[in-house]
Amino acid sequence: MSPAVQPGAEPTRPVGIPRLPERPHPLVMGVVNVTPDSFSDGGRWSRPALAVEHGRRLRAQGADILDVGGESTRPGATRPLVAEELDRVVPVIEQLAGEGACVSVDTMRAEVAEAALAAGAVIVNDVSGGLADPEILAVTAARGAGYVAMHWRAHAATMAAHARYDDVVAEVRDELAERLAAALAAGIAPERIVLDPGIGFAKTAAHNWELLGGLEAIADLGRPLLLGVSRKGFLGSLLADEHGAARPVDQRDDATTALSALAAAAGVWCVRVHEVAASLDAVRVGDRWRRAQRAAEPRLWGPSNSRVGSGPDHEN
Ligand code: PMM
Fold first, then answer.
1. What is the pLDDT of residue 73?
2. pLDDT < 70 regions, the chain
3. Backbone dihedral region of 186: left (phi > 0), alpha (psi from -120 to 50 degrees) or beta?
4. Catalytic residue at 272?
5. Which of 185, 207, 210, 213 has the most beta carbons within 10 angstroms of its beta carbon?
6. What's the 3-state SS for 11-41?
């Protein structure tokens, strides 16, 4: 690993990415899926003009980043052709970036990343962390763009079969460390890299919860974290009705908002959500909670300002 990335360092925020807003609290990334088949907003914004309208609305609600994607990663989904993906995302990015938005492109393909960055995107959000198309790392490096490396094991059609772990937190951490090393080796500046545990990707609901409980281990890789939990299946199963039927996708935003607050309290840099306004309030609440906890630490845990050896855990 590059010496520029300090293991165990407190991850703060990426730097050097044009148009990326600086906020005193975690950022909110709004999802703009230009896909006919996404699980969460299936086809609602599949025409570029509708997607642009949707992006504008999310921006007006306070989205710091608009994440434009043209490939559904819903479990079992088939991949679009490269030309289809380009046709979906490029006009939307051109328009939204042209209006001044900070745009990320949600793609695993180098060719799409290249076109998206040329159209004005400033971040490549690669759910495969460079595994699906390793060339994407060089493209991102050459353009000086930000890079989100998500934990991933296989394409949507087969990923369920890869949800096998002995220790999900340790394995995701180690696999992300490899993707971080690959991104650095390709020349992406360390301060432009963000890591994401990939909630819902080759993971069961139990794996997802374990990962959320173990975010600190992932943050130990020394990079800011992005978290995408919005409307995902593990929330549907958590909130199942008394007959065991999962909470429908369009009724999972309150749970998403709750997790946005908890993510901010855990020190996450950015949350990726479909419903921006509520998560914006939530991250501000969670961040304020985090700061209050830190301020209280000396009183709670003793003058050493350290939990180790001085907290109630060690007194009985
Ligand atoms: N999840 C989805 C798509 N892109 N990107 C990142 N970085 N993290 C995620 O968790 C993530 C992502 C799938 O959700 P969607 O179909 O609602 O967009």
1. 84
2. 1-11, 37-46, 301-316
3. alpha
4. yes
5. 207
6. CCCCCCCCCCCCCCCCEEEEEEECCCCCCCC
270 forms bridges with which residues in the sheet? Answer: 27, 226
User: Ligand 1 centroid to 228 CA: how many Å?
Assistant: 6
Identify the active-site residue in 153, 231, 272, 284: 272
Q: Distances in Å between the alpha carbon of 303 and those of 119, 313, 316? A: 53, 16, 20
Cα(143)–Cα(113) distance, integer angstroms: 10
Dist CA 271 CA 27 (whole Å):
6
> What is the structure's pLDDT at 240?
98
State which of 31, 54, 104 you would mutate to test the pocket of ligand 1, scoring each by most atoms of that ligand within 8 A of its C-beta.
31
3-state SS, residue 183: helix
The answer to whether the beta carbons of residues 39 and 156 sit under 8 Å apart is: no
Tokens of 198: 């990939």
pLDDT at 8: 45
Which domains, and CATH codes, for the chain?
A: 27-291 (3.20.20.20)
Q: How do residues 227-247 score in pLDDT, each as one tens digit?
A: 999 999 999 999 999 999 999
- Check residue 70 and give its pLDDT: 95
pLDDT value at position 1? 40
User: How far is residue 60's CA from residue 184's CA, in Å, rounded to a whole number?
Assistant: 35
Catalytic residue among 59, 173, 203, 232: 232
Q: Residue 199 Cα, ligand 1 centroid: separation in angstroms?
A: 8
Residue nearest to atom 1 of ligand 1 (CA): 228
Q: What is the pLDDT of residue 41?
A: 60
Give residue 46's pLDDT.
61
